[in-house]
Write a structure and sequence with these properties.
The structure is a single chain. It contains 25 helices and 13 strands. The chain is α+β, with helices and mostly antiparallel strands and 780 residues long. The strands form five sheets. Strands 11-12-10-13 form a four-stranded antiparallel β-sheet. The chain has a three-stranded antiparallel β-sheet with strand order 5-2-8, with helices on both faces. Strands 1-9 form a two-stranded parallel ribbon. Strand 6 and strand 7 form a beta hairpin. Helix 1 crosses helix 10 and helix 23 runs antiparallel to helix 24. The longest helix is centred in the last third of the chain and has 36 residues. The radius of gyration is 32 Å and the shape is elongated.
């Protein structure tokens, strides 16, 4: 049956190549339709409370994609026509960007920021900077307005008046209509700021859209560089392994084709829109997997060619011997990534889905491309392998397996590995998984943020104002006009004061602040009146007076019915410990001191809320992804081996390897975030391949020799040698991207490390366990 299949493949190789090429060109066309709309707000599960609050706040008030722009002067202060004109121009250029939330914009030039001055018989409440200042009188007016408004000084203008900031927010879609993507917003903000920078004015910008925009706009070219390095390393290693063109060309060609198919199938059956650039990790994984399987095939082909010296017969014998382990390995590979396709984070599930499509495509590509192309290459006697048991790596691998299989050595190996596993487990227990937006785009291994312009700009803004990342708290009253009630406003103000006392919160934005400001203003700017008035009538009057010059001044904090409002607390970082403490303290305060029958606080949206959602679930899904991937591999292996014991032996080295890998990541200071699920799937899916190929080869050799040690030595000398080569290519290929100054550097390190650990423990633990327990499945 298998022989006939191969004969038919070779007989119809040209039509198969044509069909495969047509399909590849079709999928290549489909790839051109892909859009990347990278948006962290869309990564978490939609039914999570934080996500629901985030959507509600975004639709009504905005505040989910906040960007801070800071202008800092080196000489003098900001109160010059040149600097203030820059503030005006930048503010109005930002308002022209598609997707901007106009009423959210806050700056000295924003219409809701007022000049407030009282005279003997009137109040002057007007725009602080309606036009760019032209005279010294204009400057003095703005300066007076800043220094007599406690919400501006320290909030929009630094205490030393050497810096001012602009706060803007953007929507990427509205009422089902797509607006600007975050990368486009980043590019436009960058262009606006770069055009206004000069020798005396340093302009910085920060916020989650800047981070995501940078990684998509300027980081993705680095990803292409990383893939180029990865590809080159694979070429070199494959060249050293085979020393001929086919040994380099075929594995790489198959890897490229299944990558094209993977993204193409994604566009046909799932979606043309990718919500995370993490999908571009997929080609690294698929190239690695393709290399692993094709190297096994080629090495076995050369082995068979040594016996027959006839390529068609060698291909047939190779396919017959490897179809079962290849099918099992591909099924377990795909199963591990199908598991993470169901992780409720789109940035993770997208990687799982596309990778699984690629791995399934690999079997088709073996039939449509690999075998037909291999049959076209002439088989030459010079390329035939020599006796694997007496030469080089084959001899070392075989002797190593024989050494490990000695009973005393096997027991010592098991004890030693058990000690390593326990120590690693103790280290892993200390890990606190989470995602820090500031650092997650950078390379934790090389600490690339130290040379990053984006990181430097964020640091400068934090040093001045400390407020960057919003935590949006939805305030809801039971009745319309509930937010005009002084008691409710006092509660909101108390909540804001509670949050501001936190060292990681730089300031807040809420309706109560404006009422307090007006109360102070009408009482001759006496600071003791920077409080909420007792009268609802006074509140209504203050709202009317402040809003008179420009109706809609409060749209960014309260709705038209004064029933729903937002309290925004700006944090200086998104470290997962900071995020947890902010959310926990806010929830506790809301539950114990705020919520009652008249008003409730729902926590929380914004960058802090979204990060909190990710952090709450990362650990859970790393564990679940590991368990489900192991279970899936167990079920598939048990079905194909018709044994419940065989999968256990194959899985033990993987579990050890994954735990040791996470311990290494912890010791090297690499943050464990959502990318860890990809590392787990790589470790289980691709990692199990070594055990599968060794087990099939052992059973094949034992059927000939009926001697345990001889069979073990031969299986490790042949399949083991191919595994040494293929895993070397995978590991060094993954590690080749370590210097890249984006997250792919440490992710590549992690993927290479988990493959190395699984390879080491498969080569040591597996023969040791087989030797000690002599399980029946080895001999059937």
């Amino acid at each position: 049956m298998k022989r006939k299949m191969v004969e038919q493949i070779i007989r119809f190789r040209l039509p198969l190549l044509i069909v495969g090429t047509i399909l590849t060109l079709f999928f290549l066309y489909r790839i051109t339709l892909i859009k990347v709309r990278d948006d962290p707000n869309k990564w978490p599960p939609e039914n999570h409370p934080n996500v629901e609050i985030n959507k509600l706040v975004e639709q009504t008030f905005g505040g989910c994609n906040v960007i801070i722009v800071q202008l800092e002067v080196k000489d003098g202060d900001i109160f010059t026509t040149e600097t203030l004109s820059k503030v005006y121009r930048i503010s109005h250029k930002i308002l022209e960007i598609d997707g901007v939330v106009p009423y959210y914009l806050t700056s000295l030039a924003a219409r809701k920021v007022k000049y407030m001055r009282g005279y003997a018989d009137l109040y002057d409440i007007s725009f602080l900077m309606e036009y760019p200042p032209e005279t010294q009188e204009d400057i003095e007016r703005i300066k007076w307005g800043v220094y007599h408004n406690p919400t501006i000084l320290g909030g929009l203008v630094s205490i030393d008046a050497k810096a001012t900031r602009i706060i803007a927010d953007f929507r990427t879609e509205m009422n089902g209509k797509e607006l600007n993507t975050i990368p486009e917003i980043y590019k436009q903000i960058k262009a606006i700021c770069d055009a206004e920078s000069d020798a005396n004015t340093e302009i910085s910008y920060a916020g989650s859209p800047i981070i995501i925009g940078w990684i998509n706009s300027e980081g993705l070219p680095l990803l292409m560089v990383a893939f180029g390095i990865f590809f080159l390393i694979m070429c070199v290693i494959l060249g050293l392994i085979f020393r001929n063109k086919r040994g380099v060309m075929l594995p790489l060609l198959v890897g490229i084709i299944i990558s094209i198919w993977a993204f193409g199938v994604q566009t046909v059956f799932i979606d043309k829109v990718l919500v995370s650039s993490s999908a571009f990790l997929v080609p690294f994984i698929l190239m690695a997997s393709a290399a692993c399987h094709t190297v096994q095939f080629l090495k076995r082909y050369y082995e068979e060619l040594a016996l027959t010296n006839e390529r068609i017969s060698a291909i047939t014998r190779t396919f017959t011997a490897l179809i079962s382990p290849l099918s099992l390995a591909l099924l377990t590979d795909a199963a591990s990534f199908f598991v993470i396709a169901f992780v409720p984070f789109k940035n993770v599930s997208t990687v799982g889905t596309i990778t699984a499509f690629g791995l399934v495509s690999l079997m088709f590509c073996m039939v449509l491309f690999f075998i037909p192309l291999l049959s076209y290459f002439p088989g030459r006697q010079k390329e035939v392998l020599q006796d694997e048991e007496t030469k080089g790596i084959g001899r070392v691998s075989g002797n190593f397996a024989s050494f490990i299989a000695r009973l005393n050595t096997a027991k010592a190996a098991i004890i030693g590995v058990s000690i390593i596993f326990i120590i690693s487990l103790w280290l892993v227990a200390k890990i606190d998984p989470g995602m820090d937006l500031t650092y997650t785009i950078h390379n934790y291994l090389t600490k690339s943020w130290n040379s990053s312009e984006v990181f430097a700009m964020e640091t400068k803004i934090k040093d001045r104002f400390k407020s960057i990342y919003p935590c949006n708290i939805m305030i809801q009253t039971s009745e319309p006009d509930g937010l005009k009630d002084p008691e409710v406003l006092q509660k909101v103000d108390d909540f804001a004061s509670f949050l501001t006392k936190r060292p990681d919160i730089g300031g807040t934005m809420n309706l109560a602040t404006f009422i307090k400001l007006m109360n102070r203003f009408v009482h001759e700017e006496k600071d003791e009146y920077f409080t909420i008035p007792d009268s609802s009538m006074a509140v209504s009057e203050y709202l009317y007076l402040y809003d008179l010059a420009d109706p809609g001044s409060f749209e960014f904090v309260v709705d038209h019915d004064y029933q729903n409002s937002v309290l925004v607390a700006y944090a200086d970082n998104t470290g997962h410990r900071t995020v947890k403490e902010i959310l926990d303290s806010a929830r506790h305060y809301a539950h114990t001191q705020f919520n009652d029958e008249n008003v409730t606080a729902r926590i929380a949206g914004g960058a802090i809320g979204i990060c909190g959602t990710n952090n709450e679930m990362i650990k859970k899904w790393i564990i679940l992804a590991t368990i489900f991937s192991l279970v899936a591999s167990f079920i598939i292996a048990a079905a194909l081996f018709t044994s419940l014991v065989a999968p256990v032996f194959l899985i033990i080295p993987l579990v050890i390897g994954i735990i040791v890998t996470f311990a290494i990541l912890y010791l090297t200071g690499i943050e464990i975030d959502s990318n860890a699920t990809t590392v787990v799937s790589m470790g289980i899916g691709v990692g199990i391949d070594a055990g599968i190929y060794l087990l099939f080869r052992f059973r094949e050799e034992f059927a000939r020799s009926h001697d345990f040690i001889t069979s073990l030595r031969r299986s490790y000398a042949t399949s083991g040698k191919a595994l040494v080569f293929s895993f070397s290519a995978l590991i060094l290929g993954c590690w080749s991207v370590i210097p890249i100054p984006i997250y792919i550097g440490h992710v590549g390190f992690a993927m290479g490390t988990v493959l190395l650990m699984n390879f080491i423990f498969t080569f040591t633990v597996l023969p040791a366990l087989w030797s000690v327990f002599k399980p029946k499945f080895l001999f059937t």
